[in-house]
């Protein structure tokens, strides 16, 4: 049975998520898309704005899917599966539009922690929209706005037609999230190939874009930052596990997303791993190729990221 691909749309208030969703649904494509929306308040508005092109729209109006104590998202996901299995609806892709004040972390973790949801859905990627006009002020005032950028697999910079020069903002976004490419978007118009099949939660070698500088020194206004750790020596698998467990024990609340490719001592294969907050997984990948120089490369994104502790922990894996 094929997995249902899931795309999470996030971004601060007014960034253009509903406009983008409307564009997705009205583009010519062969997808059957179901939608879950999260809104604050008792009256749903966004489902009236996006039109009738979605296979099914479930609107959650109490703003609680960003809360780890709420099962409303899980219930909605399971309800969609029941309707699919009963033949009432047919969909092969799901888009979740988060409210502008939602923390994406608990939403993402739902796809790691529930057995049925893990078996039937495949989290494809997190798309974060950033308002080029207001983002600097929003990120200065709200750590949440930075956090939404930190979780992203793709960053869409909206309102660039009226924002003027966005180079400073772009540099700041790259300091927050070194691994997410940034695309300018006007009125939600973008090729769906840039949004779907991002493989953001697949274990693969694309840890950070090849063209990206691998280390940024973040200014003080960023509570969310990213670092890239590169190791030119092999590491012992059990010792890597110990390092990760120790880091999570001390800093789990600081780590938003992390992803890596490891050169493991005594093995000819690459080990790929990724995690979201306290949950992580790893899997063996292909053999190192003769023309490749084996190395480890890891990216960490987090709140007040404990950079020194992370670098010291992995530096301690070097054999004397």
Proportion of helical residues? 25-40%
- Annotation field: number of helices: 11
Report the end-to-end length measured between terminal Cα atoms. Answer: 49 Å
Beta-strand segment tally: 12
Low-confidence stretches: 41-49, 210-218
Global Rg: 20 Å
Note the overall shape: globular
Biggest sheet strand order reads: 3-2-4-1-5-6-7
Would you tell me the overall average pLDDT? Answer: 84
Largest sheet: 7 strands, parallel
Strand content: 25-35%
Secondary structural class: alpha/beta
The secondary-structure element order is EHEHEHEHHEHHEHHEEHEEEEH
What would the keywords be for this entry?
320 residues, alpha/beta, seven-stranded parallel beta sheet, five-stranded antiparallel beta sheet, 11 helices, 12 strands, globular
Quick summary:
By secondary structure, the protein is of the alpha/beta class. It has helices at residues 17-26, 46-49, 72-85, 104-113, 115-120, 135-141, 143-150, 160-163, 167-176, 237-251, 307-315; strands spanning 4-11, 33-38, 56-60, 93-97, 121-131, 154-158, 182-185, 224-231, 255-263, 269-276, 279-287, 296-303. The strands form 2 sheets. Strands 3-2-4-1-5-6-7 form a 7-stranded parallel sheet, sandwiched between helices. A 5-stranded antiparallel sheet has the order 8-12-9-10-11, with helices on both faces.
